[in-house]
Every structure is written in structure tokens, then in C-alpha cells.
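[Automated response] Your request has been received and processed.

Submitted sequence:
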Amino acid sequence: MDIKNIRLNIIQVAVVVVQTVAVVMYVGRQSGKIDSVNESTARIERNQEREAADNKIWKAKIEADLADLKVRTALLEARINTMVK
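Generated structure:
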């Protein structure tokens, strides 16, 4: 082999190495993006679970207040009925 062929082979190897490094860096960035999306999704799911628990508590409080109002209304109606008679 002469010097010219050796130089061409070295250049070809260098190009392949640069392309490989570029692909590895690209895959690494994409992997980082996927990890970021996974973390965001997990955070959103935790927030939704927490909000669902809070909503159940609020629903129970509202139902208790409604039941209390119904009892008070019935008592007031009974009181009014006894006053009218």
C-alpha cells in the first residue's frame, strides 16, 4: 500500500469514528429526554392521586354538611308545623 491509500483509510476510519460518536451522543440525549418525560409523568400521576384523595375528603365534607342541613331543615319544619297548629 502506498501512503495515499493509507491516508484515505485513516480518513475513512476517522469519519466512521466521528459518526459513531455523533450517534452515541444523539442516543444519549434522546434517552435523557425519555427519562425526563418518565419523571414528569410519574410526578403528574402522584399529583393526580393526591388530588383524588383530596377530592374524596371534600366530597365527604360536603355530603356531611348536606346531611346536617337536611336534619336542620326537618327540625325547623317540625317546629313550624307545631307552631302553626
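Summary generated for your ticket: Residues 48 and 54 are 10 Å apart (CA to CA). DSSP finds one helix and no strands in the chain.
If you did not submit this request, please reply to this message.
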